[in-house]
Structure formats: structure tokens, C-alpha cells
């Protein structure tokens, strides 16, 4: 089902006001136009069933608060995670897993994206790793969390995508930047979260708390959604690689397995 804000119950059973629903529809349409695919990946071939078990979008922070070295640590950490035997076992247990990535920053800038990659076995996981490593940095600016989530939602709710589970894996080191001048062009993080909830999309978050020690609490209140949604916290970018590996194992694994995986506080200092 294409991404369209719905009137009805949102997070906590609250009714979404028509004005908000209209603004979210406009934000969705705008982000669909702004999101320009980049990189070297091509759309993954559909499995014989026509659907996949998991469609996962990695939403990676490339805003101005992330230095060039920190951006590289994120790319290398994600690549290393997909080469990790534990992550590959989780993918095998989950079934057919398709992966894409969105690199986000200012809400007004087009988001750099990869195509979908089918992570089938070690060769597929290696293809994901190489795709992430090959992505150049093409965005910076403010912390546009809402726009990042909407971009990922547009990908996950495309009519041609069929998946039993749809997940956004968001990582970042700051709260959403408040728009002081002019009009906001996209949904806020809580509005995007409510859209995800309405469409059955799970959002999990990794809080990199090098500048904001309580960022995990902010993500818990404003970003994550889903029956098993969680936030993990890491104190700095040096721990990103280990954190993203554990996070991927937890969110990709089938629910009966993921309940036995790491806890959300496993990486807290």
C-alpha cells in the first residue's frame, strides 16, 4: 500500500487531526520527489514467492554534527556487521531479507540512497557491505529526522514492495533540529513515527550519545514504534560497529529468537 497518512488512530490510540493528516500527505509526496537514488546497487530480484520476509532500510546520520571520520566509521561499521557470522545467521533464520540505505541530513536536501539488495547468504550480505562502503557523502546540514523517516517510509510502502516485516533501522547523534524560520517542508519525527505505525512499519533506533547523553530517551519518546521496537545506546562512534551488529541481529531475527537477543541497555556505559 502506498504511503498515505490515514485519519484514525495513531500512537496510543489517539485520533489524527485532518490538518495533520493533510500535511503528512504533502510531506510524503514531497519526499518522494526529493529522494533521488544513488549508488551502485540495482533493485533485487523478487524471490519465487513474490514477497520477502524482511525489508530493512538503514537510515544513517550524515548531518553536519557527523565528522568525515565519523561518517566513515558508520559505513565501515555497517559493512563489518553484514560480514559478521552472527548477522548472517540472523538473516538466514529470518528468510529472504532485502536491505536498502538512506543517508540523511538537512530536511531540504535530497537523500542519498542505495538500491535494494537481497542479502541471501554470505554473497548477498557481502553485496550489502560493498554497496554501503561505495556510497559517497552527498548530504550534510541540519538534523532532519522526520524527513529521514519519511524517505525510508516512501521506500517501504512502495506498491511494488511486498514484505512480511518492514523495518527502519535509524542511527543518529542528535535530536531533530527545530525549524525557526520559514515553513517546515516535511513531517516532524513524531509525525513520521505515527505514519509508520499506521502502516505497520517498525522503527528501531541507535542513539550515538557522544554529544547528548539522554538521546536514547528522546528516541524512545519521538522515534521508535512497533510491538517490539527498541532503542540501543552507544556512548561514541568508536563503539558504533559493535552496536550496529548487535542491533541488526536483534531486529532481523525472527521474533521468537530476537526475544533472546541482546537487551537495549547492553551497550550503555
From TrEMBL:
Transmembrane stretches, start-end: none
Limits of the VWFA domain: 55-252
Signal among keywords: yes
Cited InterPro entries: DUF1194 (IPR010607), VWF_A (IPR002035), vWFA_dom_sf (IPR036465)
Residues annotated as signal peptide: 1-41
Gene3D superfamilies assigned: von Willebrand factor, type A domain
Entry keyword Transport: no
Protein name: DUF1194 domain-containing protein
PROSITE patterns: PROKAR_LIPOPROTEIN, VWFA
Amino acid at each position: 500500500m502506498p504511503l498515505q497518512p490515514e485519519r484514525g488512530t495513531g500512537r496510543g490510540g489517539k485520533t489524527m487531526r485532518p490538518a495533520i493528516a493533510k500535511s503528512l500527505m504533502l510531506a510524503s509526496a514531497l519526499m518522494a520527489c526529493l529522494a533521488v537514488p544513488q549508488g551502485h546497487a540495482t533493485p533485487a530480484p523478487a524471490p519465487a514467492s513474490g514477497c520477502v520476509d524482511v525489508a530493512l532500510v538503514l537510515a544513517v546520520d550524515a548531518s553536519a554534527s557527523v565528522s568525515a571520520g565519523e561518517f566513515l566509521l558508520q559505513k565501515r561499521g555497517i559493512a563489518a556487521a553484514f560480514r559478521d557470522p552472527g548477522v548472517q545467521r540472523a538473516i538466514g533464520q529470518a528468510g529472504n531479507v532485502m536491505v536498502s540505505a538512506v543517508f540523511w541530513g538537512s530536511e531540504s536536501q535530497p537523500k542519498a540512497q542505495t538500491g535494494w539488495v537481497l542479502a541471501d547468504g554470505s554473497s548477498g550480505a557481502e553485496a550489502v557491505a560493498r554497496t554501503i562502503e561505495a556510497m559517497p557523502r552527498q548530504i550534510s546540514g541540519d538534523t532532519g529526522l522526520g524527513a529521514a523517516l519519511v524517505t525510508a517510509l516512501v521506500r517501504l510502502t512502495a506498491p511494488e514492495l511486498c514484505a512480511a516485516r518492514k523495518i527502519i533501522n535509524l542511527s543518529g547523534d542528535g535530536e531533530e533540529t527545530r525549524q525557526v524560520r520559514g515553513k517546515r517542508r516535511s513531517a516532524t519525527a513524531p509525525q513520521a513515527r505515527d505514519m509508520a505505525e499506521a502502516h505497520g512499519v517498525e522503527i528501531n533506533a541507535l542513539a550515538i550519545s557522544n554529544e547528548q547523553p539522554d538521546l536514547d530517551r528522546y528516541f524512545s519518546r519521538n522515534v521508535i514504534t512497533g510491538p517490539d521496537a527498541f532503542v540501543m545506546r552507544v556512548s561514541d562512534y568508536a563503539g558504533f560497529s559493535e552496536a550496529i551488529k548487535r542491533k541488526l541481529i536483534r531486529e532481523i531475527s525472527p521474533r521468537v529468537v530476537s526475544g533472546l537477543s541482546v537487551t537495549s541497555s547492553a551497550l550503555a556505559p
